[in-house]
Amino acid sequence: MATDGEGQARGPVNEQVVANMYASMRTEVNQIYSKITELEMEVSEHSLVINAINPLDPSRRCYRMIGGVLVERTIKEVLPAVQRNKEGIEEVIARLHEALEKKKNEISEFEAKYKIRIKKSDEVKDESGKKEGNAQGVLVGPAGASE
């Protein structure tokens, strides 16, 4: 994708390359979203632990999992470590949000540059939805079928 002898700018040459680049960019965005969600769940778990042990006596025994090994400590030792971990995870989440915004802007510029439009799933379902139906739910057998 370098410039050729005539001085044309670098960039994708055909629709397939553009589509592949666009798909990879969308995949990266989805990966960032999933990582943010995973880390937010960890922050939630850390908050639950902090709220549970905070009102307890600091000299009370508690157990903490470190690298797959359960270690006995006191609340006085564990609480600051859990709080530091939570703060660290929150910082990572903030950086991931920044990366997500940059990637979204990059995708928007890419869409504008190559005039990419996304078809809504409703437009695709119009034809197939009439033939097959749109019922959703649980399939239940007739009453007394288990007897």
UniProtKB/TrEMBL annotation:
Keyword terms, alphabetized: Chaperone, Coiled coil
Domain of life of the organism encoding this protein: Eukaryota
UniProt keyword Chaperone present: yes
GO CC list: prefoldin complex
GO terms, biological process: protein folding; response to cold
GO molecular function, one term: unfolded protein binding
CDD domains attached to this UniProt entry: Prefoldin_2 (cd23163)
Coiled-coil residues: 86-113
Pfam family, one: Prefoldin_2
InterPro entries, per database record: PFD2, PFD_beta-like, Prefoldin
Location of region: Disordered: 122-147
Biased composition (Basic and acidic residues): 122-133
Entry's family note: Belongs to the prefoldin subunit beta family.
Protein name per its UniProtKB record: Chaperone
